[in-house]
Amino acid sequence: MHKHLWFETDKVFIDGKWIHPALGGTLPVEDPSTGAQIGRIARGTQDDIDMAVVAAQSALEGNWGQMTAVERGRILTRIGELVNARLDDLAMIEATDVGKPLTQARNDAIALARYMEFYGGAADKVMGETIPYQQGYTVYTLREPHGVTGHIVPWNYPMQIIGRSIGAALAMGNACVLKPAEEACLTALAFADLAREAGLPAGALNVVPGLGEEAGAALTAHAGVHHISFTGSVNVGKLVQKAAAENVVPVTLELGGKSPQVVFADADLDAALPFLVGACIQNAGQTCSASSRILVERPVYDEVLARMAARYSALRVGPASADLNLGPLISARQKEIVEGFLGMADDLEVAARGKIVPDAPAGGHYVAPVLLADVPPYHALAQQEIFGPVQVVIPFDGEDEAVEIANGTEFGLVASVWSENGARQMRMAKRLKAGQVFVNNYGAGGGVELPFGGVGKSGHGREKGFEALYGFSTLKTVAVRHG
Ligand code: NAD
Asked: Which residue among the candidates 214, 254, 297, 385 is catalytic per the annotation?
């Protein structure tokens, strides 16, 4: 699959048309499974962002802004149908661009279709309220779009993050400017084509690939953008929030995490085991909600560790096309970062490692997954987001210590509790510091319907589910004095 592909997509998508970027620059596309260049994309800059924002504003003032909610919903639903009809193509493109095993890439394409279906169906179900007020008044609220929304997405789950962010924004009638990640933006470009084919009016979605510090910074600082949705690292999230502050526009930040799963001695271990490992090694650990910390109550610590280690020893890493448990990391830089963390693990016990298959291409960015045992809760590897296939196991005694360790990082994205005790499940769900808590599961298979976002350094604002529709709209109160 790797030898004959070439993606020549060196254009930006503005106002419903593919055009060369103003400065004509390009960026290479790399296949992380081989390290080979497999194409070129456009290097959009400030001028392209300016044009995209103008096109989005015109869409709001034209056709797109006039559409009813049900019409917007039908277009989203149609995009979902087109995505569903091209699942295999999209999966192949994503697998090649991101390096994720084909099955995982296909699941992302299925999720993209599902987001379009969900937000297509939700578009005409967002309602205001009437508010009892003084005699002689009728007061009601209207949910209105922000206007032009900027969307900056990372490389790890392009299709899923585009689905949740663009889907909700379009459902509410915003016009979007999307800046995909320079490392992986091929499915964002394919998505633009499908949206056009589905009948989305010109300018309602504009896609400008480019570097973060060029196109991304231009988008976040643009005075014509009325809301910014950012998914990525904490450091860039801070820059985005500062830039948004200059224009006094709202931001949704979806940043990283160090999400724990807490396993009590009374847990159903057979049910827990696949989730304990799977929730970290998926996408080679490059997942914001990766469960990179496993907290285990002492009476079952040795058993859980041994069973996790057995699973790790069976994990296989190889090219995306081989569709193994893990693919490569996205880039040489990401591999360096992860190896840097592993360099800090000399004092830790390696419980098990997975294996890179012998025929994995030499230029690919492969890292064998590592399970670290008995890690002190305040060790750097138990505190910092690694964004690679490294998982730490930490013993604890009792609920209070579990809560202290689980909440003892600066993040709070996802957490889970494994226990058969109903009262404990409820107590723990309340006490854990996270935007999502799962009981006797983890991640609920992505859960398009489930509001998602962080507390602390994991960010703020909620995407996914119906809640996102509130984030991508603003509330107007209308007070009518009629006597
Ligand atoms: P990153 O922050 O470097 O890049 C994310 C996006 O921001 C890219 O599109 C990039 O081009 C853009 N960007 C970079 N510099 C910018 C700037 N100065 N102004 C505006 N935009 C800029 O993150 P990354 O390394 O690509 O992704 C990994 C990080 O993202 C991890 O820390 C991970 O936890 C986080 N992440 C979070 C979620 C979530 O939903 N919470 C999802 C995926 C990734």
From this structure: 254
